[in-house]
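Checklist before submission:
- one chain only
- standard amino acids only
- sequence pasted in full

Submission:
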Amino acid sequence: FLYGNAQNANVNSQTINTSGLFNFTGENLRHVDVDIFTLSASQGVSFVFGDMSSGLLSINSINTDGSVFVDASLASNLDIDVENVLAGDATFTLGSVSNSSYANNISTINLDGAFVLDGIEYREKFSTQFISAQNVTITFGDLSDAFYASSITAETFSFNGGDGANLVNVKDGKNDRENILVAEKYVQAGILLNSNKNGHLLLRYWKD
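Returned file contents:
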């Protein structure tokens, strides 16, 4: 899907299945509505968005042996809602979303390799339920509101939340190489970081 100078894109599909690469490029789009139930691409999945007045990326399941790459760094009004990602590795770059109605969510991420979430420009709350990957790197900026996670399992885990008022350092003394930052107003609700019997790190969050 290469949109060139097009202004609007609407993709609604129950199933997309390819033995090659799936590419969606819409850097000049002003409105995007992508609703896919199952997206399967053996070699990889790529989405690239530009700035837009409104947008939705809704996918129930992404399945690939390759990489998932989502670049929404310029998209300040894109709602990303992905239920399941099963892939070799994945990189998501979020835009400067500041409207709560566009708050991004990726429910389940299950990878063989690395997961990178770049939210340096992101200004809203980000939520996920389950992340499992060899390496997990999560970065938020000074204006990011909050990060929710139920479980993170990784060989190496890095979480950096910048120097803003909403995020604070929480240091795990048992794992000197790990540095966790979480939303300050949710620390009181409960954050548990520990290692399981295999040495993997687990991060659990719960509300009162």
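Reviewer check: The helical segments are 184-187.
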